[in-house]
Amino acid sequence: ELAANRPATKKLAVILAADAYALGVTPGRTSIDFVPDLEQEISFSIINSEHKDMNIVIFTQGELNQSIFIKENNLLVSSTEESKQMSYRIKLPSALEPGLHTGEIVILQLPEKSSSNEAYVGAALAVVTQIYVYVPYPGKYADAELSIVDAEQNGEATFIIGVVNRGNLD
What we know:
Blueprint: H1 2-5, E1 23-26, E2 29-33, E3 39-48, E4 54-61, E5 68-70, E6 74-77, E7 83-91, E8 99-109, E9 125-135, E10 142-149, E11 158-165
Parallel strand pairs: 2-9
Antiparallel strand pairs: 1-3, 3-7, 4-6, 4-8, 5-7, 8-9, 10-11
């Protein structure tokens, strides 16, 4: 009697299988101190640890994206290449507000085209290298971070306090 009053339910299982591609980038982040009108070339490496042929698209995003200039937006990485050296140029404006300003260089591996005319679901893999620009605050300003290491209940603990001067005065 209870089964007759229950709505019919249908279950759908979706199993996705994909090749694991190992796309990487190094360094993951570059940090620089602000200098008005600074122009600097910054290098990074695209890592192809699975030794696959890859079609790559590179673009920028984030607050500083208008200050980042990429030489090559599209490139092919051959299966024989373990890594590929790339670079971008950053041109900072003459003034920025104090604090942290960020930009991202996105390295996107495009999915391979299907060999058949049937519909398929594909995925694109992306990695990011970041640029951090620190603009000093006027006067004295410090960033501090507290880390607690080897803490035991009712025992000793080690406290590590990292302090970075973010002001324009010592």
